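Minimal example, chain plus pyridoxal-5'-phosphate.
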Amino acid sequence: MMETATGSRSLRGLARPELQALRAYEPDSDGIRVRLDSNESPFDLPARLKESVLDQLRAIPFNRYPQRLAAALKGTISSRLGVSETQITMGNGLDEVIYIILQTFGPGKKVVIQRPSFTTYGFAALAAGADLRAVPLGPRLELGVAGIIEEANARAGAPADGPCIAILCNPHNPTGGRMAEDEIQAVLQATAALVVVDEAYVEFAGGSVLRLLEQYDRLIVLRTLSKAFGLAGVRVGYSVSSSEIAAELAKVRQPFNLDSLALSIAQTALQDGAYCREAVARIVQERERLASRLARIPGVTCLPSCTNFILFRTDQPEAATVRDALRRQGVSVRIFPGEPMLRGYLRVSCGTVEEDNAFLAALQNALADANHESLEDGE
Ligand SMILES: Cc1ncc(COP(=O)(O)O)c(C=O)c1O
């Protein structure tokens, strides 16, 4: 039977008030030829590795839960990073790991994040019933930890006793910048917070804080195979923490959250490694070319990036004008409607040379048209 209008309204009322203010993520790729909005890698897993995965799949019993494959992948991650298997928590994408961490430690706790930063932190914190505190970046989108430390230590209005959670995105999405290890260490030294450092883009930048895990048992480092490894569609991410923290996360994580297919692909990708290094080198080279071409377009200013994307602004005050004009030409980039500090900014992922050239040409058209229209308006 159909719900009445009143019926669905009252159902919406069942949701927690903090969730009612949120809008669910809506992927939107209709008519898009060049997708540069999600910081994906332009490079798929090489064909020889795909062949190897297909061979392995023939031997995998699909009627069995995948615990053996999960243990094998943990083993590979632990030897790559030089940590114990008991320190690793795997997730169906890093997004899921973030949700698991906040479900485990977040309810009723203060969660301090940078604003702007990766949107999942806010969603996961609110879904966990945490008290979300967003600390703005500097006026020129500078990263820094002074505000994070102050907010983490602030007593006023603190919802619950005990340490809070501070989440630092490093390298930072969406600015593309990064903080030095000393700054992360300063947060660990100056607060009692559980410090989560999201290193989704670390392969493009270096400077991981993994080695601080030897000193701090309340540090969690996050990694994903979605970016440098080019496996966004496979959904594999993981955290590295103290074994004590991992043991708590294991109570909340679904036991079989990664399927046999994802586990086999991730295993094959991590065991090779060479293709990832090559992809990173190509992406970094292309990023530099893209940045210098962008900077030559009149009215365009780019932020320096150590990731696989670039944040830039144009002479148009509203980023949506430019985003829409790019879309009409089959190119998608990201804008940030909910972030006042990023009103005129757009984020473009580094694609192949051909994709980036298509984007650059579309951007030049979009800006020429917008300026032409504003001249006509002024006549
Ligand atoms: C900073 C950051 N963390 C985590 C993720 C999520 O990664 P995954 O695809 O593994 O869920 C992203 C994806 O864009 C990201 O930018």
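The chain has two domains: 29-44+275-378, 47-272. The chain has a mean pLDDT of 93.
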